[in-house]
Amino acid sequence: MLKKLASVSSPLITHTAVTCPFCGLLCDDLAIAVSDTQLTVTQNGCPKASAAFRAADVPGPPLINGQPATLNAALDAAARILKRSQQPLFAGLGTDVAGMRALLALAEPCHAIVDHLHGATMARQVRVLQSRGLTTTTLAEVRNRADLVVLLGVDIQADFPRFAEICLTPAESLAPERLATRRVFQVGPTASKPPKTGARMERVTCAASELRETLSALRAELRGRPHRAAGRIRTGVILLAQAIRAAHYTVFVWAPGAFAALDGDLIIGSACELIAEINRDRRAAGLALGGNDGGQTALAVCTWITGYPLQVSFVGATLDFDPLRYQTTRLLADDAVDALLWLSTFSSQPAPATHVPRIVIGNAASTLVAPNSVFLPAGTPGLDHTGQLVRTDAVVTLPLQRLRETGTSSAATLLLELARRAR
Ligand code: SF4
Predict the structure, then answer these.
(1) pLDDT at 118 over 90
(2) CA–CA separation, 136 vs 147, rounded Å?
(3) Same domain, residue pair 130 and 26
């Protein structure tokens, strides 16, 4: 919806019901004021969204080796890099559904390997899903049905600032009795700032490195078996076990990106075993928060199209999926690729440093001024062009509006044109 506010010198346009693309929650109720190309959140934002919309500058001209060029010349230069490459890496993948579809259409003829900026952390969840199975739920289920929510090592206030408002203490719920009796536990280190849940937070305070042992103690406590938890962890575990026994529907919430690399699979796996056990005589599920920078979208589109999640290779005669081998940092460190295409339209994460030729398709913050490189400016979905993104719980694809007129091409348009020229 679009409303014009009268002003003689600087017309101000306010868009409402805007979907925010800056974290996996994809809140869709923001109001954004637009003055020229400057975007300001006026309603329902959070500090993260306000900063991201404010910082969303319009990218400058295309660059070849750091020097301004026409779009035509830059596309030709990028196509030449891809034609010469035997095994390029397509990474970053900060884009929307159309951008990801176009990227995969280019990856196949270019024999590329495909990974996302958050591919390594998202792979933890995928590995547990593949090896043990996983009962997950949605934001709507947490909001409406859960009467016990356990935040597992996730700092929602810092990383998913409106999760509390949307899911823990919403203004309305389909099951008001569940909302009225909802209890919220935080298990793990004390958050950077206390979540503004409005609900009383109960804590099982432990170090991040003690999360897995704490979950094991909780499982033993629920079974009535002895465990080695001591002190305040023991007290918290006993209290949480009592709360789980009393609850109709417990949801464990975690963020794979918050766990240390070696512990991630084990903590998620422990949570899954706990959930399976609780489900024997009552209801429980898990919810992973993440998928930022188009991560959930990249994972979903790659799965729809190839049958595999991210970290796939189009190099051989058949598709190859290997979440350990096809990680961006590993491939670059091992000199296993001979070109890098970095796609980044949401974040300010720069393209990784490497000696191989780089093509960056991205926003102003990802502008690459460097030798042996091509920069193709692209709009941010939801700001500069319409599009769709998949939400963190993977059950909803939300539409994105165009908020301002910048004339910047979408990543999908640039990738389709590259595919035509790189043939
Ligand atoms: S919580 Fe996430 S999606 Fe919602 S407004 Fe903040 S940054 Fe945007």
Answers:
(1) yes
(2) 16
(3) no
